[in-house]
Amino acid sequence: MPKQSAPQDLALIAPKLVEVTNEVLFGDVWERPGLSPRDRSLVTVSVLAALYRSEQLGYHLGVALDNGLSVEELSEAITHLAFYAGWPNAMTAITQLKKIADERAA
Length: 106
Fold this sequence. Notes:
69% of the residues lie in helices and 0% in strands. It is mainly α. This is 4-carboxymuconolactone decarboxylase.
């Protein structure tokens, strides 16, 4: 999988945020050996879904699939978190996952 990076057009208004995102978050934190990219994706998707951060969730669902998680595993994680993070959060996440899975299957 190609290394993640912040959208470069954001650097026009927030160059430091893009720099820190690319160098610290994606260049350091995501590259640490303590967790695999697959596990980091599962954690990230779970937190984004739980906190209803739907703008970032779609991107990270795609990354999770690229990092080896299956649609079934992500669906199971989302179903599980519905009881801890709320039904609306889970329904939003599963709707996004379905859309991405459908696009990839086409």
